[in-house]
Fold these 2 entries.
Entry 1:
Amino acid sequence: MKQVLLSGIALIFLIAAAWAPQWLLFLLALALAKGLVVLGLLLLMRTGLVSFGQGLYFGLGAYAAALLAHRGGLADAALMIVAGTACAAAVAAILGLLLARYREIFFAMLSLAFSMILYGLLVKSSALGSTDGFHVQVKQFAGIALAAGAERRVFFAVSVVATLAAGWLLHRYLASHWGRLSEAIRDNELRVEYLGASVYRVVYANYIIAAALAGLGGAFAALAVGHVDPETTYWTTSGEFVFIAILGGTGNVLAPFLSAAIFEALRTVASQYAPNVWQMALGVAMLAIIMFLPGGLWTLVRRKAA
Amino acid sequence: MSAILVTEGLQKSFGAVSAAADINLAFERDSVVSLIGANGAGKTTFLNMVTGYLRPDGGRVRFDGQELVGRSPREITALGLSRSFQIPQLFQSLSVRENLLVAEGIAHAERVEEATDALLEKFDLASYAARPAGLLPEGIRKLLDVAMALVSKPKLLLLDEPTSGVAADEKFGIMDLVMTAVRGQGVTVLFVEHDMDIVSRYAARVVAFYDGRVIADGTPAQVLEAEEVRRYVIGDAPHAA
């Protein structure tokens, strides 16, 4: 049943890739890109960690992908996606050595600090376009030249496939021993150590996985928007990811994508009809979620299924 | 018979309070030993030092020929020493079955699912398998805590007050289940206990603590009759002026 549901969702998205108007395609592409970042946050939250700095890896993924095309002369979307993901994972492998030692507010603030350091560097770097960033033009995927005007649709279709693969892999991971161990760490680190497992290793691994997913999302965002700027690493962007994670809840790997789509739609509508107070609409939505659905929107899906 | 656990000159202070003062003990393999003493006597501090949670101020702890001081709880568990806790340390949001699956997964059991089912049966936990650990009655929490400690097939099992907080009529049932589970497994058991009926029934040897010192060590009959133990632990003899 689940496979049928997932196949149906994938089919709808792939049809959207072919037929949907550009504005809808853009909205969905951003929702998928952000959903990937939040998928990583879901893993961290299941381990008991909240990162206010996933913008660091989202931005790194976006910039690494964009730089490959802009400066490296390798304007191939497939290579850019790999570069964005690998760059985020590599940086996380270094920073994770330190961050995996911290918990709660210290972890949250340290991750925020690192993302703001990158933001500061990008803003001061005129070679990278400073606050304006720079454009990304890509007309090739895996060596195949793309017809003019079809690039966005191809990138979106690729992001649908990549998102499905990432969601399925994370679902398998969460159902595995390491997934259960992550939840055990959230509940009781002391007992995990007394049972003979290294909490540090699990947290470190999960941190890198979350960063890789954020890098992947960043690369797709760069391809969808066709532009990168330091805003991707700013704390409000990281806050947005946490917002989406709380909106959807951590109950299922589909929750981040559901909530990311709702978030993007809510923001689009709210900013169109109330351009000066759209953040207030988001704030009210968050208040309602925390008060009435503390487990996030996925609670509704679960209740209906039960 | 050789000793599996030996402590020499073990010392620990918390400020001006001495929780362990020159503790010299040796525990034989396959024995069942009870540690008794009033609250604050130093029993749990002793367990915490042996299991690596606290580093002693001085002295040595040798387990199966290996020095334990300076090792982490994780390293000590890997050597074959496991423990349960006075307040059961469970994964509250996970079910009883998932708690055991986590423990089995860490212990690298070959057939994790089958091993978990066997453990649920052995500890009479099958009817609670799907219930979150945070919603269990205290007696079941204690059993699950001990069951998780046994998953790694330890050579030495330390139980910190396995029956505290449990209804009087359930205490013997819990201890019977635990002792049945370890019997014939070659596991040495050290348990901290306040209930002298439990101590008399299950321990072959009793070590009494008071003020960070060992005040008596012997069979249950010898120790429970000792004047210092009656005065400071059991409380049925008048205190010295």
Entry 2:
Amino acid sequence: MSTVTTPAGERAARTAAAPQPTRRARRHLIGTDTFFNGFSHVFLLVWAVLVVYPMVWAALSSFKDDAQIIREPLSLIPHSLHWDNFARAWTKGGLGSFFVNTVLVVGGGVFCTMLLGSMAAYVLARYEFFGNRFIYYTFLAGLPVPIYLAAVPLYVGTFKAPGQIADFFGRIPVVGSSIGSFIGPYLGPNSRVMLILVYVAWSLSFTVFFMHSFFRTLPTTIAEAALVDGASHSRLFFGVMLPMARPGLISIGIFNVIGQWNQWYLPYLLMQPSGGEEKKQVIAQGLINLSVNQGYKSDWSGMFAGITLAMLPVLVVYLVFQRQVQAGLTASITK
Amino acid sequence: MNAPLPGTRPQAANIPLQRARPEATGIRLEQVSKRFRGGVLAVDRVDLDVRPGEFVVLVGPSGCGKSTLLRMIAGLEAVSGGRIWLGDQDVTSRLPQERDVAMVFQSYALYPRMTVRRNLGFGLRMRHTGRPERNRRVAEVAEVLGLEHLLDRRPAALSGGQRQRVAMGRAIVREPKAFLMDEPLSNLDAKLRVSMRAQLSRLHQRLGTTTVYVTHDQVEAMTLGQRVAVLRDGVLQQCDTPQHLFRHPVNLFVAAFIGSPSMNFVAASVSGGAAHFADLRVPLPAGSSLATADRQVILGIRPTGFGVAESNGWPTLRAVPDVVEELGDERNLIIDINAPRVDTDATRAAVAARTADDALLLPEEKARFTVRVPGDHPVSIGEPLDLAVNPERLYFFDPETGQTLR
């Protein structure tokens, strides 16, 4: 089909007539661009050195012996590799039990945070119901609250919990007191379950905030297709929407792992034995103990080995999932 | 009135026809309305009866409520008023999961984390169909749609046409009571769209499942639908066979919307058994109810309602083509008419949904006609020619109400 139209060359002529930047102006623009490029590269290089150097220094110092650490504190290359430093940190420093405690608490904490956080975020993002915004803003309200503000209520609540639970269940005849005395210790001080619950409450705000915006970017027609196909709401969430949210889940999962792994204040506050039982410390507390104990013994190499061991899991997790973390962070921008 | 239709239903030549499934279910809408929060009335008391095994197309310009109506049938949108029946069951308040209908979306809505095989089998899995039966039906549908070699791919690794076929397959494999299709071809390129249209038509003839199909493309509506329902501003204007819709539109909007290029309109008067416009007197067809009338009307003529002036006694109109569109066998001529242009809400709404060349004709004060003439007739821009008006192919509309005057 041919139609009589306006000559096509007109646009080209208009383009040609448009004012072009002069050569001098162009050179000036290029020069400015190069300057800022170079400046930003130098800035990023300095930043990278500031971040990476202490880590590399600590990691390499863990292979040195104490004499070299004292004599050449700034050197990077160990004279010989002292693997025994790691064995000493693991056994004498008690790092093994700290690791187990941390893995259990962080594993449980991250799993529950992700499960509850993504479920809450999905419902708040995709279903309209009375009070939806209120609940969402309540979650958001937790974001700016520093953990120190919750220290006193958490401390008091945790230490009072076993007694209150025993009182509550004690009202139930026959089995009540047994139930109370069974549950109470799990929610009291120096309990991994209690710490997991506190971690979950602490991490939910950001998880719900992040996943809420992620779920809003997912197409609604896919959920509708699944509903028409006969999926229940729970099946739709676990079978269709959650797999689609994988990049977001991985990103927020890494944040939670790092945040909970490095958490020191909450365990320091709450993991205190009320009786004479063994203290269930996590890795951050353990490292402080290690620095004090090994410091008294002048076992600097053991201390650096402990720090390196504590860093490794988070570093490995980040390196493995690095690509997904970036994808998750940019997902809402590119969609 | 023996002009060719704008499109004909493709024949399913090589596929053995199957009778309509005995369990095919009809869909009945009774006074169905939808009012969105904020008070917008998207669908206004629509009555529609889709017979078992029938292919009905809902067509209309953007925002006319056709997709909302389809989503209400699927259960994805709550009904504000009226009732929806699937067979003899009132499904108005049932969840989408409980309606046993399948829907094909414009965006295909394939599950991105599942392979084609799992996409096809998802609905069966949700209905707890056993694995052997599931595999058998998925394989069967994959063969019918030519998807066997794609079963282990994910949707991201498929082309647009392949995704469209998977979406169709996902609907077919469940053997639902009805198919609901929301512009399933609009994301395909023009050539693929024509081929998929033919495939869809064949599939319907083969399966005999009740189908409600939404499109804004009237050519698609006319070629696919056994009946076509035209909607405007949430109100059902007319539901009829494509032939009847084309030949007997009930109002100005339907007349303007159906047919490509669209019908030409001009302000005219009727008196003494003839219509008068642009210094032309066209005798009314025999038996016309307007024979004794003396009134103003809107006169409509299809582009195919003109002929090259011969000795057939038809009144002739001298015109100078401004634009000549070559179509090969035929030509579209665009000519100015010395009469005021018809500019009503109905024509504006119909033309706004159409192609750019129709919109091009709007800003002029004078009426502009599109005339279709045979390709072998010598025509050139600026050269006057005589066009004969076929009195049998005139349509008359009330200028106030837009209703057809018969």
